[in-house]
Amino acid sequence: MKILEYTGLDTARVKASCRKVADAIARNDFRAAQVKKLVNLSHGRFYRARLDDADRLLFSLVRHGDEVCALMLEV
Q1: Which of 31, 37, 47, 70 is the most buried (most CB within 10 A)?
Q2: Residue 17 confidence (pLDDT)
Q3: 0.90 cut: is pTM over it?
Q4: pLDDT (tens digit, 9 = 90+) per residue, 4-55?
């Protein structure tokens, strides 16, 4: 899976853990990234991946042509 980042996404303080989680998502290994779907949202499908005890990575799955990509939105 291809990883895309939202313009202006700041991952400087959690760079190592963010890279580790993004690599797991790119391999479609959602269990290793501890991904959970966020529920009770009015529109869109959003997921969160655990970076450490306090930080989470918010992302969405989008289709680009024939490929599914993970769009990283916010830490």
Answers
A1: 70
A2: 93
A3: no
A4: 998 988 888 999 999 999 999 999 999 999 999 998 877 778 999 999 999 9
User: 75, 56 in Cβ contact below 8 A?
Assistant: yes
Domain locations in the chain as residue ranges: 2-74
- What is the Cα–Cα distance from 73 to 46, expressed in whole angstroms? 10
Q: What's domain 2-74's superfamily in CATH?
A: RelE-like (3.30.2310.20)
Q: Counting Cβ atoms within 10 Å, is residue 55 exposed (0-12), middle (13-18) or buried (19+)?
A: middle
Q: Is 59 exposed, middle or buried (0-12, 13-18, 19+ CB in 10 A)?
A: buried
